[in-house]
Structures
1.
Amino acid sequence: MTPEQNAKELTRKFFDIDFFENDKKHYCIEWLNAKKCALICVNEILIELEDDNDGYRMDRVEYWEEVKQEINKL
């Protein structure tokens, strides 16, 4: 899965689009909250990965940093 795909999937897990279908204001607020939740998850993953400096983990750190950037673009 690409970082962009992962960012979208993770953010959508925190967002129920059907619930806010007719309310644009709450839709926007909840979308921002979903992004914040997704970023919290990614930050927790990064904390765990950065505790170990082997090559495989550093590749994963780079991947999750890209996911974080993609979430911020949404």
2.
Amino acid sequence: MQEPSKEKKIIVDEDWKSQVESERQAAAQAAQSGEEQDQGGGEEAPGPMPPPCFETLVSTLATEAMVSMGQLPHPATGRAAVNLDQARYFVDTLAVIEQKTRGNLTPQEAQGLESVLHQLRMLFVSVTNAAAQPQQADADESGAP
């Protein structure tokens, strides 16, 4: 009886090279189609959008007002910046909605809108006063009346 060879045999599978190459090509095509999709119309939503409702509308406009008053960072820049004209626009838009929907809202919707408007108006006054204080300090230092 002969003893099996203790020598290990190396089997070279040339097919792996073609498999790797096909995977590279598939990845490149996927990346290219992803770039085309980004250029074409933006990103898809991560899931289905919730149904539109009054509370979402009010919340969206209130959030925009808070971003404009520097209370939340801007989603694009990540920095908080004050734009009082834009903030006034969003608060005034909510006031128009309150006026035009008067008598057509549920008590909860009316109370929520009234509460949001009151809070935003108080915040607007506070931010406006804070923005005016440095200007007043500069005027006092320069000796202007």
3.
Amino acid sequence: MKLIEEVARHFHDNSLGTLSTDLFYGHLPDVEADTSILVRDTGGMEPDKDLLDIKYPTFQVFIRAKTYGAGKDILDSVRSLLHGVISETLIPDGIHYRRIHALAEGGHIGKNEAGYHEFSINFEAEIVE
């Protein structure tokens, strides 16, 4: 299972959204929801030349919300769920994460053409393969 799928499932399990309704991974389709959450890959950090079995993937959580307050609440919940994960899995039989941390606080990035507020936060994970 992909990291981004696991993160989306973790959000679903913690009532941040419903998969394929207002919670997605990889691509955000046009949906008629007051709020939408997307988890997408953003590459990763440079691998350690001495520790080739450790990977440092990065990912972004993108939030689109009808109101600023709703989007900010989701952003805060996302940060609380992921920032500071140490030595655990997010879903049963999933990837074991040595750690996950936010690369920045995340925040409001403006409104889209339909007037929805957009938020973004980026994370780095550390995984031993």
4.
Amino acid sequence: MAAYVMGMNAKLYYGAAAAALGAMTELSNVKDLTVTLDAGEADITTRANSGWRATAATLREATVTWDMVWASTGVGATGFAAIKTAYLAGTTLELAVLDGSSIVAGNQGLKGAFSFTSFSESQPLEEGITVSVTAKLTTFSEWVSV
């Protein structure tokens, strides 16, 4: 087994609210994807800390951004429609962002309910139409470890 994981082998799954991983469907028209995990900060500095500032992590947040090929028909059309519909309706979908297939032991990633805050279309002259999507975690389900 390789000591690294290639991005092309990663998977993004979507499903209805609170869907189990096995009931979720792969979003197959994804290009580049980024998961950003951040935490807020609280200053907990005291005089006893020898002049050093002390910081504690507070609330965490997760943002997933990705580009996908515009797919009105054919491969990826169902997933594309689900994301577009959730964005337009202001509803959430369950997403699982894994470093590989959901049926291969050892793969892992974030799973939870996400709301969609951006659905930006790009129409370059000599490329296919793409959509840049931003999804923000509303309910953390679990850190999946297959």
